[in-house]
Amino acid sequence: MATETTRPASVSTATNTVRSTRKVSTNANRWLVPAKIAVFVAALYPLARIVLLGFTGGLGANPIEFITRSTGLWTLVFICITLAVTPVRKLTGWNALLRFRRMLGLYAFFYGALHFTTYFWFDKWFDIAEIVKDIGKRPFITVGFAAFVLLIPLAITSPKAMVRKLGRRWQTLHRAIYVIAALAILHFWWMKAGKHDLILPKIYGAIVIALLGWRVLVWARDRIRQRAKV
Ligand code: HEM
């Protein structure tokens, strides 16, 4: 799962993304494997923390709530990190960052799946009728569910073979990450609004607005340049 928004004169396509990733120098490849392993292991920290706290009785008075909130927050964190890859890459010229994007996006899906599983297993005990009722009744659950459902096709189409197979359609599909990020903020905001505690939703909302705003600015700049050339 990844995003690539800049569309300069030579229109960037999903296939180009794969190709440009391959162009990263062979020197970079030497540190790439250990770096990928390090990122992979580091991204397991939220899960390891939950497991450790679970075994040491550190999940508090309401372990289900703790796990639901922790996995929800880390889903949002990984969505933000995945969205940040392209701006950071473009601003620093560090193209090798692209090599980490799919893994980071898949971790967003992984923690989203854990978050949803905690909800439907330990909170609702697989009671489908109750879950459907909840999705229809509580707006913050409705938008959270929509965000998770949208993450599924992105995770399924994240392998390189799918990028090649889908071509430009892959890029169009993966733009859903912007909608997912917006829905995730809305989910978080609605949930916390009921508790009159909007500090974190405001911080994450500002991060998502900055990341999406950067893309809009780059898109507008490229359109102006294209028109100037005609
Ligand atoms: C991309 C998908 C999702 C993201 C990014 C997300 C994110 C979050 C965040 C950030 C929180 C608050 C954590 C905190 O308190 O610090 C949360 C809480 C919660 N989410 Fe999600 N969520 C997603 C999908 C879902 C889905 C699919 C469901 C269930 C259908 C769900 C149900 C809940 C529940 C029940 C809570 C806890 C409410 C409470 O403790 O009062 N979320 N989620």
Shape: globular
CATH class: Mainly Alpha
Beta strands, count: 0
N/C terminus separation = 34 Å
Helix content: over 70%
Q: How many structural domains are formed by the residues? A: 1
The helix/strand order is HHHHHHHHHHH
Largest sheet: none
**Number of helical segments?**
11
CATH architecture: Up-down Bundle
CATH topology: Four Helix Bundle (Hemerythrin (Met), subunit A)
Could you state the oligomeric state of the chains shown? Answer: single chain
What are the segments in which pLDDT stays under 50 over at least 5 consecutive residues? 2-13
Mean pLDDT: 91
Question: Which structural class do you get from the secondary structure elements?
Answer: mainly alpha
Rg on CA atoms, Å: 19 Å
| Hetero groups | protoporphyrin IX containing FE
Q: Please report which band the strand proportion falls in: under 5%, 5-15%, 15-25%, 25-35%, 35-45% or over 45%.
A: under 5%
Concise account of the structure shown:
With 230 residues, the protein is mainly alpha-helical. The protein has helices at residues 14-22, 26-42, 45-55, 63-92, 98-123, 128-137, 139-156, 160-166, 168-174, 176-193, 199-229.
Throw out a few tags for this protein:
230 residues; mainly alpha; Four Helix Bundle (Hemerythrin (Met), subunit A); 80% helix; disordered N terminus; binds protoporphyrin IX containing FE
Helices and strands in order, then pairings?
Layout lengths: L13 H9 L3 H17 L2 H11 L7 H30 L5 H26 L4 H10 L1 H18 L3 H7 L1 H7 L1 H18 L5 H31 L1
